[in-house]
Amino acid sequence: MKILLWHVHGSWTTAFVQGGHEYLLPVTPDRDADGLGRARTWTWPASAREVRADRLREEDVDVVVLQRERDLELVREWLAREPGRDLPAVFLEHNAPDGGVPNTRHPLADRDDIPIAHVTHFNRLFYDNGRAPTTVIEHGIVDPGERWTGNLLHAAVVVNEPVRRGRYVGADLLPGLAEVAPVDLFGMGLAGLHERYGLDPARVALHDDPPQAAMHAQLARRRVYVHPVRWTSLGLSLLEAMHLGMPVVALASTEAVEAVPPEAGVLSTRPERLWAAVREYLHDEDAARLAGKAARAAALERYGLPRFLRDWDALLEEVSR
User: In the prediction, which pLDDT does 43 show?
Assistant: First the structure.
């Protein structure tokens, strides 16, 4: 099957392109958001290939995975086909609803010809999906292996664009975390974070946009993974940390309460409870190790790659009939 999709979310696409299909990734001359092409910091197989936008009509596309409203327009422009009518389509919804939650209406809510595939049950529940058919295909992770050593007594955090996204990703909670542990923060768009939140560079080190493999190696050395996110979809970095065998300390919000079982760490809506858990893991290596093993077992069972690919194969076959 030839599947057209855009490089929107690198970690998600890394898992998706591990399947047994041919994955067509549009590329534009400027490699802008409409055509990023292949990833630069993830490892993708040769079956994920770039196609110039002006050559897409030469490809016999079987199905398109839409991820933005803009993608609908691009299919019409580049393939001269109508998604959901002339071309089987699925709309992959990565994000939690925004705006007037829980009344946020999904952009495809008034269509019944394109199913919406949410990545968490929380997201499907909180969106008003209207008459659109919906399903949930939970994340799948390319297993980085059990690599946790925890020999560096630091807390690891992964968030992208914390200055812009602020309270959504819990950036305002970082000063409290830094009081109980040195923090290593990984992600994209970290410039200005120290100044915005009055963080001490000696307590909060920034690792801007590391390659995925390098980030996994660095995360595994940290004693505990902290997920301070208030309101986003379920972070793939959290699931990757669990695969690595890291104990988890996380805000009990959105889908995290389903993803992290009690034996894998500590979830709470009380920051002081979270910081106490960080202290405990810093000082009790055995407790951290046991929680990390439980986290890995839970992640492999629920967010393993084979299940993820089977679920997507079933959905794509259904819409292509």
Answer: 87
